[in-house]
Design brief:
Two copies of one chain form a homodimer.
Chain A (H helix, E strand, L loop, with lengths): L3 H10 L7 H13 L2 H17 L1 E2 L6 E2 L5 H4 L7 E5 L2 H8 L7 E4 L17 H7 L6 E4 L5 H13 L5 E4 L15 H9 L5
Parallel strand pairs in A: 3-4, 3-5, 5-6
Antiparallel strand pairs in A: 1-2
Chain lengths: 195, 195
Amino acid sequence: MYPLELQKLIELFKKLPGVGNKTAERYALLVLEMEEAEVEEFAEGLLDAKRKITECEICGNYTNGKHCDICLDAQRDESVICVVSSARDILAIEKLNSFQGRYHVLGGLISTVNNVMPNDLNIDKLLLRLNDEVKELILAFSPTLEGETTALYLSKKVDESVVISHLAQGLPMGGQLEYADEMTLLRSFENRKKV
Amino acid sequence: MYPLELQKLIELFKKLPGVGNKTAERYALLVLEMEEAEVEEFAEGLLDAKRKITECEICGNYTNGKHCDICLDAQRDESVICVVSSARDILAIEKLNSFQGRYHVLGGLISTVNNVMPNDLNIDKLLLRLNDEVKELILAFSPTLEGETTALYLSKKVDESVVISHLAQGLPMGGQLEYADEMTLLRSFENRKKV
């Protein structure tokens, strides 16, 4: 019912995650209401990001150069590497302003269901980074079957001289105990801490 | 923390209605995961829609030509014009596959709060369309203060030979009576129909 070009733009917006027909329609109609210069900026922004952003050669983080800002930062602690599944997780951790080490992006987690094998992940590069300076690997994976499988695999691959830790599991802050799932509650009992 | 181009793309996505930081981030990261050809298609789609879609010279509906498909369709009834606030409303009504007349887009509703005056709206063109053939104007506005103000204004401007109607107000289908607001319930009493 909409003219062809508008219908096509709606279809394009539907490729974005979680965007259905109604939302795509709202987005497309807003684009029509923008100034032409604004739409040109939008189009250029898409192409620019896609063409200039690549993965850091060392850790796999997003970068517009060869190496990302974190790998280039000489201030950061070389002795701790935080291993994450995707580059997005780095931002979440960086927002805490607490971790001062380095990162390594695996590009996924081992999953037999989705047929993701260790060879599909950025694991070899991680093992090559483990020189004498690296004392600890923090595995910052989501507490899922895939996360635990990947943690187990890495713990067997990595030399015993390197300490491997994973993020604490338990009740989330502000969460209601009565609504916690059984697994979370069980873990929070197992990992209880002295007050 | 993200590279410049990525940060910029996130800012651009935040211009879309209802898109905050988190959602814009998800959209931008998805763009990075798309094929370059796909991103080019997206960028072209934006420009194409913006450059080729204009308003129908007769009714104000979206079109990629001078006149929209509905105005060009000789089968449609010339004697009834459905007046809407925005071109989006046309799609909602067309989906019903029920109304066979023509449309007219006002491009807004009279609003003293937002300083929208009759002169800001596409009203003159509507009055010019009211030749002898037009027998009825259906005012399909949202039942708000602005909708009612605009309806009142039009009813005074339009010659008495033209019937003016507005959409029925009452309980929405599937709605719970106990949750209906007072105004809706009041209207549904006033406009009650014999079973």
